[in-house]
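[INFO] parsing input record for Geranyl transferase
[DEBUG] input buffer:
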Amino acid sequence: MEIEALLREKKRIIDDALKGYLAEDDTPIFTAMRYSVIDGGKRIRPILCLLTYEASGGRDFDEIIPIACGIEMIHCYSLIHDDLPCMDNDDFRRGKPTSHRVFGEGVATLAGDGLFAFAFELLSRSKSDQKLRVIADLARITGPKGIVAGQEMDIREKKELTPSFLRKTHFRKTALLITGSIRAGAIIARVDDSILTNLTRGGEALGMLFQITDDLLDVREKGSEENRLTYPLLYGIDRSRFRARRYADRARYYFHRAGEVYQVLKEITTFILNRDR
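[DEBUG] output buffer:
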């Protein structure tokens, strides 16, 4: 199947599951949670989780769908908080007003908190005997040594304009959860540690590639933004594209080392490298 068609098919599966989970309650908080999750986003993280699980031989949706949807809710929580006035102060996300513009800062903050907690409830619903390993992995990735640390670095008024600071910020804020999505699919499918190591290295490179292409697309669509440390700001357009290609090569190398069954991850890497939105 052509890669874009495959991504659309898996996105439909994830979207349907997310709608089902978020329809469990009709309180104001769930309304705000649904607003930021439903009908938006590429779902690349849960799709990577699902495809890695399937490529690794997994066949039970009751094992993997709660995990994949929990990962997407973690991602959406981080976006809600990222958009708040005390953080990036963004007015639009995924083509519509951000949560705090619609519901107010208080409810938006609580909706993010709700998604984060509900995500871990979903992770615990997986039928897999490996779910605790995934829960621990994702808790580490999203906590004060992971996404939270990356977000703090991203909002500093006085950022270090260095390659090291830039890489650490985006590795924690973006690459870790993309890596964790791939790891989760592999862990639930019970792959060997040697395979998991290669998938982890490939996921880290893919996550950095995703961030660089995001930065390049943002510059094309919005221009440079004040107080935002990005690859184009530090390296310029051409050198950023060069780094994107290098990360893509690295990701494909490690996915190849993991095994031919992971050809789909190599194809997704090429798709992300060449994406235009």
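[INFO] The chain has a mean pLDDT of 94.
[INFO] shutting down worker
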